[in-house]
Amino acid sequence: MKIKRYLDKDMRHVLRRVREDQGPDAVILSNRRVEDGIEVIAALDYDEALVRHAIGVKPESDAEISSDALAEIAEDDAAIEPVAEVVSADLTRHPVEELSLKQMQGELSSMRGLLETQLSGLIWKDATRRFPLRAQILRNLARLGLAPDIANIIVDRLEPTGDIKNLWSAPLTTLAQTLPVVENDLLTTGGTVALIGPTGVGKTTTIAKIASRFAMNNWADDIALVSADSYRIGAKEHLRAFANIIGAKVYAASNFDELSETLVRLKDKKLVLIDTEGRSQRDRDLSSRLAAYGRNADRVRFYLTLSAATQEAALDETVREFSRVPLEGCIVTKIDEAAQLGCVMSALIRNDLPAAWFSDGQRIPEDLHGAARKKLWLVNQAVECMEASHPRVDERTMAEDYTKQSFANA
Ligand SMILES: Nc1nc2c(ncn2[C@@H]2O[C@H](COP(=O)(O)OP(=O)(O)O)[C@@H](O)[C@H]2O)c(=O)[nH]1
Ligand SMILES: [Mg+2]
Pocket residues for ligand 1 (CB within 6 Å)? Predict the structure, then answer.
C-alpha cells in the first residue's frame, strides 16, 4: 500500500490532485483541516474487497466499485457509516504500520468525502437527464464565466423548465436584469468624486475620460483634478498631461490634511475629480477619513474601479478591502481585454455593487459608457468574449462546482 500526503486549499482541489496523481483507485485514509487548507492522506492498492463486503456488493470483476453501487449507497446515506466502521474495525484487527488510530478514525469522514465527490458526478448525470434544459442553461452560464452561486441564482429566477424555448435569450435577459447598476448625473450636475481601486486598473484614464466629457459642455475652469497619488513617480504628470489637453488644472495633495484643504479651495468648481494612487491600505484610510469629512452638500462620492480582466477571487478581495468606504458604485474597466466577463458580473452581483460606468478601451473620452443603459450591451459583450475564446467547461466541473445548489429545488 502506497501512502501519500496531499495539501490544498479545499477538499475539491485536494481530491483533484489525488486523482491526477494516483488515479481513480486511490482511497482517502484521512482528511483534516490544517492552517493552509485541507490535508488528505491517500492510499493506493487499498483493500477494496473489504468495502464490497461491507456494502454487500458482489465483486463483478477486479474493477473498482461500480457507479450503480455508488448510486445504491447514495440512496442509503446511512450505508456509508457501516462501510467506514467495518473498514476501521478491520484495520484495528490488522494493524497497518503506517496508520495511527487517529488516522483510522479520520476514515469515517474521509470515505464520506470521497463518496460525496463521486456522487456529485452521479447527481449531475441524473439531473442532466431529468432537467436537460436547466442543465444546458447552467452549462451556458458557466461558459460565460459566471460563478456557480451566481449561475444558480440566474437559473432559479427563470420560469420553470419546460417553458424555456431558448437556452440563451431568457437567461441572458435575466442576467442583464440581475446586474446592479446605478444612474449617475455626474456629467450634467458635476460634484466631487474620488476614484479608488488597485494600481493599473485605469483610474487616471477614467478621470481623463470623465473630465473631457464634462469639458464638452462646461468651461475648463469649472473642472479641477486632484492627484492624491504621492507614491508613484510621475503619477501627477500623467494626470497633468490629460488636464493640459482640456485646459483644466491639477492640484496635488499628499495626505488627508492637504486633501481636505485643497477641497475647501476648490468648493466653487463644478466638477472635482480625485485620483488616488492604488495602494489599498493608504487609500482606504484616506477615503474613510474623507468620507467622514464630506457628509454635507459637497460630500465626496467614491467609485471603486475594477478591471474586468481581473480574476474573480481578486475582484472579491478588492471589494472586501474597500468595503469600509461608502461606495456610490463602481467603474468596470478593460471590458475589451477580459477573456470572460462572467467573473466581473459575478463579483458585482454577489457584492451588490452597482456599476456606474463601463470602459472598453483607452480612447479618451469615447471608450466610457454610463452603465445604467448598457446592461444588455455588457451581457452581449460577455457572449462575444465567450464566442471568441471558446472556453471549455467539462462535465466534472459542472458536477463538482455547479451541481450542489442547482437541482435541489428544481
Ligand atoms: N484596454 C484598455 N486599457 C485601459 C482601459 N482603461 C485604462 N486602460 C489602460 O490601462 C493602463 C493603466 O491605466 P491608468 O489609468 O494609469 O491606471 P491607474 O493606475 O488605475 O491610474 C493604461 O495603459 C491605460 O491606457 C480600458 O478600458 N481598456
Ligand atoms: Mg493612476
Answer: 199-205, 278, 333-334, 336-337, 359-362, 367
What residue type is 361 in one-letter code? G
Question: Are 279 and 364 in the same domain?
Answer: yes
Residue 226's nearest CA partner among 288, 271, 293 is 271
Same domain assignment for residues 105 and 243: no
pLDDT at residue 45 is higher than 80: no
Query: Element (H or E) spanning 272, and its range?
Result: strand 271-276
Taking the CA of residue 197 as reference, the ligand 1 atom at the shortest distance is 20
CB 156 within 8 A of CB 166: no
Looking at the fold, whether 367 and 231 belong to one and the same domain comes out as: yes
Its domain, for residue 258, covers 186-373
- Residue 146 domain flag: no
- Residue 213 lies inside a defined structural domain of this protein: yes
Q: Whose CA is nearest to atom 12 of ligand 1?
A: 200
Q: How many domains does the structure of the chain reveal?
A: 2
Same-domain pairing of 78 and 204: no
pLDDT tens-place string over residues 294-341: 555 468 899 999 999 999 999 999 999 888 888 999 999 999 999 999
- In the reported structure, the alpha carbon of residue 310 is separated from the centroid of ligand 2 by a whole-number distance in angstroms of 17
Residues 91 and 236 in one domain: no
The pTM of the full predicted model, rounded to 2 decimals, is 0.73
Cell representation of residue 210:
470623465
> Tens digit of pLDDT for each residue in 203-247?
999 999 999 999 999 999 999 999 986 666 566 777 888 898 889
Residue 407 maps to a domain: no
| Residue 84 pLDDT level (bands cut at 50, 70, 90) | very low
d(CA 6, CA 50): 24
Do both 199 and 302 map to the same domain? yes
Ligand 1 centre distance from Cα of residue 336 (Å): 11
Most confident stretch, 9-23, 32-46, 315-329? 315-329
The CA 196 to ligand 2 mean position distance, Å, reads: 10
The best mutation among 203, 205, 283 to test binding of ligand 1, ranked by most ligand atoms within 8 Å of the C-beta, falls on 205
Write out the DSSP string of 259-305.
HHHHHHHTTT-SEEEEEE---HHHHHHHHHHHHHHT-STTPEEEEEE
